[in-house]
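Record format v2
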Amino acid sequence: MNSRITQYCIIRNGKIFLNGEEFFSNDIAESPLVFFKSALKHLNISYPKFYKMDSLSKLAFLASEVILIQDKARGSFPNDRVALVLSNSVSCLDTDVEYQKSISDRNNYYPSPALFVYTLPNIMIGEICIRNKYQGENIFFCSEAFNADLIYSYVNMLLQTNKADKCITGWIDFLGNSYEAVLFLIEREGNSNTIEFNIENLNKLYKGI
Amino acid sequence: MKVYIESDNIISPLGFTTGENFSALLECRSGIKFHKDKKYSQNDFYAAIIDDIALDDHFSEIADPTGYTRFEKLCISSIAGALKQSSVDIESHRTVIILSTTKGNIDYLSETSETLNPKVYLWNTAKFLKEYFKSRNDVLVVSTACISGISALLMGQRLIQSGIYDNAVVCGCDIFSSFVLSGFQSFQAISHSPCRPFDADRSGISLGEGCGTLILTNSKPEKSSINIRISGGAISNDANHISGPSRTGDGLTIAIDKAMGEAVFSPDVIDFISAHGTATPYNDEMEAIAFATSGLLKSSVNSLKGYFGHTLGAAGTIESIVTLESMRQNVVIKSIGYETSGVSQELNVAKSNIQTQLTHCLKTASGFGGGNAAIVFSKVENE
Amino acid sequence: MDELILKVKNEIITALKLEGMTPDEIDTDAPLFNEGLGLDSIDALELIVLMDKNYGIVVEDPKVGKQALESVRTMAEFIKNNRKS
C-alpha cells in the first residue's frame, strides 16, 4: 500500500500555504524575520525559544507548526515513530557567515555560543523534535535543488521497513533575504482521499505555487 | 539483503591508510599535539592536525596538489585509497558516493552572504567529487553534526537494501578550522590537555581533522577470509536540548535498542562498543547511562577521541573503520587517556589493548541537535 | 547600583533575545537559571561573553561564573567589582 501526503505547507514570498490554500500572508513585511514573527503571531503560538533560533530554524519551525495544526496529540508524549528528513541547498551558510563576522576581527573577537550552535543544518531538526517530543529517525541532506527522488527513496524506505509511521520531510532553505520552505507530512496509513506519496506528486506540489 | 564492507581507508595525522593508522593505535600513539598557531587561535591548544607537507606529498602521487583545497585533497586521497583495494566500479550507475561532513570547505568562508565563494556550498563540493570520480550518480551529502558519519553509513546500507544501488562509497571528512575551534572554545568545551574520555579528570574535547572512507556492497567480497557486514542500525533524537546531551540518555538508548533489534541481537552478544566518548563531562556520563540502560555493561568499551581528536563529520567513519580492523585482528584498542572512571556506571573501558574474539560490535555517536546514531557490525566467517 | 542593575537587565534581554520582555519583569533577586527566567546552559555561556564584551571581564573558572550568574543582583555586583571598561 502506498503512503499518503496528508498535509503540506509552502512558505514563499511572504505567504504561507497549507494544502494548497493560502493560510497567511504578509508580503509587505520589510524582512523575512518580520514576516516569520507575524506568522508566529497569526498561529497564536507562545514559544520564547522561537526568538533564539536562527532564521533557518525559525522557517523550519513555522512550516512544521502549520502542517501539524491538526495533530492535537503531538508533544504530549515522547514519540519515536515520527521521522524527520529535511534538505536544502545552502546548509546553514546564513548563520555561518554571521558567526564568521564575530571571529574575523582580532580586536573585536567575541565568538557567540548561541550563534555557533546554529552553524549546523540539523539543528532545525532538533528544534522541531524538542517542540513535539519526536525521538525518531532523523537526517539532513544537502543538494543543489529540491531532490524529490532522494526524499521519496529515503522516506519510503523508512515507512516501508517500519522504522517510522509518519515522516515530516521536505525543503527548508534560507540565505540572505531569500527563503523557501516546502514541507510534507507523510503517513503510512494516511486517509485515502489525500494525495498519494510519490516522486511525481512531490515535484508537482513543490512547483505548484 | 546483506550489506558488506568491502574496503576502507583512513587519513589522519597517524597515517594515510587504515593499516598505518591501526599500527599507530596498537602502539598507543596519539595524533593530538600541542599547537601554537596564530592562524587558528590566539591561545595555545591541543588538536590532531594533519601535516601540510605530508598531505601534499601523499596527494602528489594522485595529482598536483596546487588547485585543490585541503578538504578536496583529503576526500580524493581517502576515496582513491579505498578504491585501490576494491573491486567496486565507482563509475557504475549502480554505485553512489555519499559524503558526510559538517562544514566542508569552511576555510573559504567570507563575511558576507553576497560574496560567498562557491566552494563553501556543500552541494558544490559534491558536484566536484562527482566530476572528479566520474560518478554516474549525484554525490549525496549528509550533514547531521557529530552523527553524520554513522548516518551516512546507514543511509548507504539502506539505499542498497532498498535495491536503489548495489554499492555505496561513504566518505566522512572535516578539516580543522579556526571557525570550529573558536566555537568550541566559546562553549568552554576544549580540554587544556589531550582529551581523556570517560576519565574522572576529563575536562572537554580535543578537536581533530581527517577523512575515513568505507565501500559498502551487496555482494559478499571473495578475496578476504573474514567479511564484516552491517547487521543493524538506527538514528534517534533526544528531543531535549540543541546542545546539551540528555541527562537520561534516553535518545541514545532508543538508537542502540533499535539497532540491536534490527540485528536481532540481545545485548550479551555485543563484544565491544566503540563509543562516541568526546570527554565532555555531560556527554560521557550520558553515554554511560545509555549503555547501562541497554544492558551493555559487560561489553568492552573505548573511545578513539584521544588518538584522532573529534573529527566531526569524519568521526563516525574513521571510528567505524577502526572497529572493523579491530574485528579483523581481534583486538580492542586501549582507550587512551582513561585511568580512573569518571562516570556513574561501571563501564568496561579498555585500559590496555585487549586480544579477544570480536564477532559483533556496536559503534555509537551523539551530537549537537540532539542526534544519536548506532550501528552494529557483525563478522561473517567464510566457509 | 540600581542604574547598573537596570543596564544589566537590558543587556540580558538583548543578548538572550528575550523577546517582548521588559526590565521590570525581571526580578533582580530571582535565580536566572531553571526557575525564574528559565535560562539554559547556552544562555549562561552567552552571559559570560556579554561580561567580556561589555565590561572586559574574562571568566575562565566555571565555578566563578556560576556564582556570579545566580541572579541579576549577583551579576551586577560581580561586574561592579571586576569591570575593566
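Chain A has one domain: 4-207.
The mean pLDDT of chain A is 96.
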